Amino acid sequence: MTDKNPSAPARAQSGTSGVQHVTERHEDNFTVVGNHLAQHPDLSLTAIGLAVHIQSLPAGTPIGIKALTAKFQEGEIRIAAALRELETHGYLTRARERLQSGRVVTRTVAYNKPRTTPRTTIPEHRPASPPSRTEPPAPKPARTAADLLTGLRAADSRLLLSERDVHRLAPQVSAWLERGVPATAVERTLTSGLPQDPIKHPAAFLAHRLTTLLPPPLPTTPPHPTPALRPDPLQTCDGCERAFRSAHPGGRCRDCRPAERDAA
Question: Do 194 and 109 contact (CB within 8 A), yes or no?
Fold first, then answer.
């Protein structure tokens, strides 16, 4: 909150367009917020609003995902994303700490000015373990449709989806993956060539792209062709010495066989 002239009476600023301000002095129950946060160019509106709320809370107030979800309409996915944004830009740190009792707790610190030093994590005290033989790293799990949709906001903050939208769009993304389209290609299709105008309804925008740009299924592998039947080899008739085809060597042609039977 910025009050350039606290003693001045409340009045609206003159102007023909844009927002008009009526500024009144707060005597109690207020929070001072810097414009570096209120007008942050890289934070989403959800993250800015959450940071203002956290700065207004008394020390010791729980601000875990479960506690915030119970207080606001945003789902766990959106609140978790906003907390990560605040961590990335230095307004929040969360570090795991092991107490003497062995219990692991999360220490959360909020900053009214962004930190300039990289965030650090309090190391956990673990007993030394004997060296073991080197094993190959475990393969990374395949990205699910929900993970892909949740991560779209990293490419463009306008593609931030609610938990309900993620569950509704996940079957459409699964249809792409089932047709052999790599997850990176699906993500590139959804995030490339975005309009310059604000995306008011990101879920509807993504649903339109997933429907209209859905590729056809991969063609099935054609069955192995049946080998062509080779004709019987040519041989000479024992009766008329005419060439004829037969699978059995020797013998007579079709015309000479009746005469041979009559003679017998």
Answer: no
| Tokens linked to 187 | 């993500």
User: Where in the sequence of the chain do the CATH 1.10.10 domains occur?
Assistant: 35-110
Task: Please write the tens of the pLDDT for every residue from 114-131.
Answer: 886 544 444 444 555 555
Rounded distance between C-alpha atoms, residue 112 and residue 180, angstroms: 47
Asked if 86 and 92 touch (Cβ cutoff 8 Å), the reply is yes
Whole-structure pTM value: 0.40
Q: What is the C-alpha to C-alpha distance for residues 107 and 97, in angstroms, rounded to an integer?
A: 7
- Range 35-110: architecture per CATH: Orthogonal Bundle (1.10)
Model pLDDT for residues 33-49, shown as the tens digit of each residue: 889 988 999 999 999 99
Q: What is the chain's alpha carbon radius of gyration, rounded to the nearest angstrom? A: 38
CB 231 within 8 Å of CB 215: no
